[in-house]
Design a protein that fits this description.
Protein name: CopG domain protein DNA-binding domain protein
Order of helices and strands: HHH
GO molecular function: DNA binding
Radius of gyration: 25 Å
Pfam families: RHH_1 (PF01402)
InterPro entries: CopG
Keywords: DNA-binding
Largest sheet: none
Amino acid sequence: MAKESFDRITHDLFADEVRPGRPKSNPHCRQVQLKMNKKKQVLRDKQKGLKRIELKVDSELFEKLNQLSKDQEITRGELIKQLLHEQLI
């Protein structure tokens, strides 16, 4: 039986053939891609007029925020933003 390169029915003939995976679409390694994406995100936020706030809370408050955001089906960040906005304005 002749082996045809386009024949994919007889698997045993192609058991040792290495099939290429997904082609590399970006010349940079994953770590560099992540840094570039983060930088782009920061620039987009800056153009939208958004500022970053870091907040440390105890675990009890953290769990309450998680539960409340889950109940309202919004992210925790959106919930905190909404609570601060209601309190200050």
